[in-house]
Write a structure and sequence with these properties.
Radius of gyration: 21 Å
Oligomer: single chain
Structural class: alpha+beta
Distance between the termini: 29 Å
Number of helices: 4
Strand order of the largest sheet: 1-2
Helix content: 40-55%
Largest sheet: 2 strands, antiparallel
């Protein structure tokens, strides 16, 4: 995601966003309306209108770290070692 904020006048701005298609494809474009809602609230000195997320990124990181251990990792590591065994070395 790339963003550029252009000042077009003293009190006017334009936000340009370049997004990878995975962000804007089916089911994900609603996050852009969330960005708009946050901006409108911020610019009017209001609190966030969005609901608090049940799971934060830190929760996901802890879950992922717990999952990436033991047999799960050993199986995946074995798979990729076999797949890349004949790959040229850089």
């Amino acid at each position: 995601m790339r963003t550029v904020l252009l000042r077009t006048a003293e009190e006017r701005h334009a936000l340009l966003m370049t997004l990878h298609h995975i962000i804007t494809t089916a089911g994900h474009s609603h996050s852009l309306s969330g960005l708009s809602a946050l901006y409108n609230a911020y610019s009017n000195n209001q609190a966030s209108p969005l609901q608090q997320l049940e799971v934060q990124y830190g929760d996901f990181a802890v879950w992922q770290k717990g999952r990436l251990q033991g047999e799960f990792v050993a199986e995946h590591l074995s798979y990729w070692k076999k797949q890349l065994a004949d790959a040229p070395r850089a």
